[in-house]
Amino acid sequence: AAAGLSYVGAYVINTYKSYDNFLQDKYALLPAVIIICVAVVMFIIGLIGCCATFRESRVGLGLFFAIILVIFIAEVSAFVLGFVYREKVKTDVQGTMHSVFESYDGKNPESSVVDYLQEQLHCCGVKNYSDWTTTQWFNSTRNNSVPLSCCRQDAKNCTGRLDQPQEL
């Protein structure tokens, strides 16, 4: 389990590099760091449990039980806090995404991140393609279309025009 959590934490940190423009808050990596720390602690606790079982130590097994109980309480607390603050996180991420979409011009680094995100997640805009109609890029192009990264992968001749929403 510790190795699996370490892999997940490292994967999240590595993936963060692709989406760091959307997650401007540096605390966005905190969950990944916590996951890696939990993996280290789990390894140590597992080692204590194995040694206590091997030696048949009542004190060691009692310590192991107490640690497992504390971890369970911490997990329940983390779940409750995540549930309570889910809307705040959603609002913060959407606000940051709107500001990144607003700075889209098709040339700057943020634009390539937006294109990458839309292609990888098979989406268009923050909520849908109509989010593009309020951006400076949309108003400056005056061609009534969204970026080509909004096009569906199976759409052959997609131009990003809003009069063909089935291709987006």
TrEMBL record:
UniProt keywords (A-Z) are:
Membrane, Transmembrane, Transmembrane helix
Q: Which Gene3D superfamilies match?
A: Tetraspanin
TM region positions? 28-54, 61-85
Q: Oxidoreductase: is it a keyword of this entry?
A: no
Membrane association type: Multi-pass membrane protein
Compartmental location: Membrane
Which superkingdom is the protein from? Answer: Eukaryota
Give GO cellular component annotations, separated by semicolons: plasma membrane
Write down what this protein is called.
Answer: TSN36 protein
- Provide the species name: Serilophus lunatus (silver-breasted broadbill)
Gene encoding it?
A: Tspan36
